[in-house]
C-alpha cells in the first residue's frame, strides 16, 4: 500500500536539515505561512504526485515552454525543470517584500538618472567615480538624455534569498533584460490544471495581470504627443535562449513580436515597422537585445540584430526603449555593494530589504579579507550572470582554491565576495521522494509612471542535492510561488 506524503507533523522522510523551510517555517521561530496548506500537502499520495508531475513536464514541453542551452556542438531545447510542490509566502510578509522591491527600484532609477546627468552621488563621495565611469556597461551616449518619468528600469528582477534567520536579503539586481516571468505565469496555469484539489479555495494572489500592467507602463513612457502609442517587443530571434518568453510576453501584451530586420528608422528619425500594409510607426520598444547589438551605427558595427539609427530616434524623443540603454551599470555586483548607501542618499531611508554582506575585492580591505577566508566565501565576477564563474569556497578543492586565488590577485576589481548563505529550502519531489532543495526568489517589478510588483515571482530551485546554484543554465528548476491573500 502506498504511503501518503503526510503523516503526523511533517512529510515522511522530509528533513529540512536545520535550514529555514518555505512551507514549515524555521527552527528560530519564524512562522510557517499556512498550516492549512501543509495539511493539504500531507494528504497527497506520492505515486499520484509523481504521475501528475510527469504529465505536467510533458505538457510544458509540448506547449514549447522551453529555453535553449548552447554547447560547442549543438543547441538543445529544454524545459525548465518544474517542481509541483509550491513555495508559500504569507500575506503580511508579502506586504514587506512589495515595499522593499519598490523602494529598491525607485533608488535604482534615481541613481541611473543621476549618473547620466549631474553625477552628484559621485561628487559627494558616496560612490567612487571609477566604479561608474570605468564600468563596461556605462554608456556615454546616454549622458544628458532625459527619459519619460525619469524611468530607466521599466522591468526589474530583484534576486532575493532567505537565510537561517528567516529574513529575506537582496542577492543581486537584474536591470538589463531580466528573464523568467513567463515561467511564473505558466507555472501557475500548470498548477491550476494539474492540482485543482490543492489550489481550490485557499486564497491565492493572481499573477495574470502582468501582461496588461506591462502594456500600461509602456504606454505611460511612450512619447508624450502620441495618443495611441504602438508598442512592440524586439527579440534577437529564434536562436535566443529565451525566445519562448519573447513570444509569450508579446502575446500577453497583445503587441507585435519583431526582429531588427522588421524595423527601420526613417529620414525623420522616427521608427517604423514593416507590415503587409506598408510602414507603421512604432513608439515604444520592449527590447530583449543587449546594448551592444541594438544599433550598429553606435555600438557594434557587425550587429545584425539591431536597428541602424535607433539611438538617433531615441535621442530625439521619438521612441522609448525599455529597459533604457545603459542600465547594465546597476547589474554590476560591485555597484550592488553600494546600494544601501544609494538608497539612503536618494530616499533618506534605510533599506527595507538588506543586502547580503559583500566584500569588494577592488578595495584593499575587501581583497585581504577575501584571500584570508577564500575557503569560507562565495566569490563572484562582477560582470557575469547566470551562475558562471562563481567559486563556492566550502565546496572547492585545494587546486580550485589555488587557481582562484591567482585570478583574484591578477584582477581583484573583477570580483566581490560574500558569506555562504544558508539558503532556505522547500520540499521538492525528486525521484519519487520528498527532499529539501535550496531556493531563491526573483520578484518582478514594472515601472512606468509608478511601480507595481507581480505578487510572488520566480522561485528557482537547485535540483541537485546540496547545490546552492539555482540558475537554469546550471541545471536549476522552478516552482510556483503562492502569495496568500490572508
UniProtKB/TrEMBL annotation:
Residues 86-462 form the Circularly permuted ATP-grasp type domain. It comes from the Bacteria. Gene3D superfamilies: 3.30.1490.270, 3.40.50.11290. This is Circularly permuted type 2 ATP-grasp protein.
Amino acid at each position: 500500500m502506498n504511503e501518503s506524503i503526510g503523516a503526523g507533523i511533517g512529510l515522511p522522510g522530509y528533513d529540512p536539515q536545520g535550514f529555514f523551510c518555505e512551507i514549515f517555517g524555521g527552527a528560530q521561530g519564524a512562522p510557517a505561512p499556512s498550516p492549512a496548506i501543509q495539511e493539504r500537502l500531507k494528504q497527497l499520495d506520492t505515486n499520484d504526485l509523481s504521475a501528475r508531475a510527469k504529465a505536467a513536464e510533458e505538457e510544458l514541453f509540448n506547449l514549447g515552454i522551453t529555453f535553449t542551452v548552447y554547447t560547442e556542438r549543438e543547441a538543445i531545447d529544454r524545459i525548465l525543470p518544474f517542481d509541483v510542490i509550491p513555495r508559500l509566502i504569507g500575506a503580511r510578509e508579502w506586504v514587506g517584500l512589495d515595499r522593499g522591491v519598490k523602494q529598491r527600484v525607485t533608488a535604482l532609477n534615481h541613481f541611473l538618472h543621476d549618473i547620466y546627468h549631474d553625477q552628484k552621488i559621485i561628487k559627494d563621495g558616496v560612490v567612487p567615480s571609477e566604479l561608474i565611469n570605468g564600468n563596461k556597461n556605462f554608456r556615454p551616449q546616454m549622458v544628458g538624455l532625459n527619459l519619460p518619468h525619469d524611468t530607466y528600469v521599466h522591468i526589474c528582477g530583484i534576486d532575493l534569498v532567505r537565510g537561517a534567520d528567516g529574513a529575506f536579503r537582496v542577492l543581486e539586481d537584474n536591470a538589463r533584460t531580466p528573464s523568467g516571468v513567463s515561467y511564473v505565469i505558466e507555472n501557475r496555469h500548470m498548477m491550476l490544471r494539474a492540482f485543482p484539489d490543492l489550489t481550490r479555495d485557499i486564497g491565492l494572489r493572481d499573477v495574470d495581470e502582468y501582461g496588461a500592467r506591462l502594456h500600461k507602463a509602456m504606454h505611460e513612457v511612450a512619447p508624450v504627443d502620441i495618443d495611441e502609442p504602438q508598442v512592440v517587443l524586439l527579440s534577437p530571434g529564434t536562436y535566443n535562449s529565451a525566445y519562448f518568453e519573447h513570444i509569450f510576453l508579446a502575446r500577453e501584451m497583445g503587441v507585435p513580436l519583431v526582429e531588427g530586420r522588421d524595423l527601420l528608422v526613417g529620414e525623420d528619425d522616427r521608427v517604423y515597422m514593416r507590415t503587409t500594409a506598408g510602414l507603421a510607426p512604432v513608439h515604444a520598444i520592449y527590447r530583449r537585445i543587449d546594448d551592444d547589438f541594438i544599433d550598429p551605427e553606435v555600438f557594434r558595427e557587425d550587429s545584425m540584430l539591431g536597428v541602424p539609427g535607433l539611438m538617433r530616434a531615441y535621442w530625439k524623443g521619438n521612441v522609448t526603449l525599455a529597459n533604457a540603454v545603459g542600465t547594465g551599470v546597476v547589474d554590476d555586483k560591485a555597484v550592488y555593494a553600494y546600494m544601501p548607501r544609494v538608497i539612503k542618499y536618494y530616499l533618506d531611508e534605510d533599506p527595507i530589504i538588506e543586502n547580503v554582506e559583500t566584500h569588494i575585492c577592488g578595495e584593499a580591505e575587501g581583497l585581504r579579507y577575501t584571500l584570508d577566508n577564500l575557503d569560507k566565501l562565495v566569490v563572484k565576477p562582477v560582470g557575469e550572470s547566470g551562475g558562471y564563474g562563481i567559486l563556492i569556497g566550502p565546496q572547492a578543492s585545494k587546486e580550485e582554491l589555488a587557481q582562484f586565488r591567482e585570478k583574484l590577485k591578477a584582477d581583484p576589481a573583477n570580483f566581490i565576495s560574500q558569506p555562504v548563505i544558508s539558503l532556505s529550502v522547500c520540499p521538492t519531489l525528486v525521484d519519487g521522494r520528498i527532499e529539501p532543495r535550496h531556493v531563491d526568489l526573483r520578484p518582478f517589478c514594472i515601472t512606468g509612471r509608478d511601480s507595481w510588483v507581480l505578487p510572488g515571482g520566480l522561485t528557482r530551485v537547485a535540483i541537485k542535492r546540496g547545490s546552492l546554484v539555482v540558475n537554469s543554465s546550471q541545471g536549476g528548476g522552478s516552482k510556483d510561488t503562492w502569495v496568500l491573500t490572508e
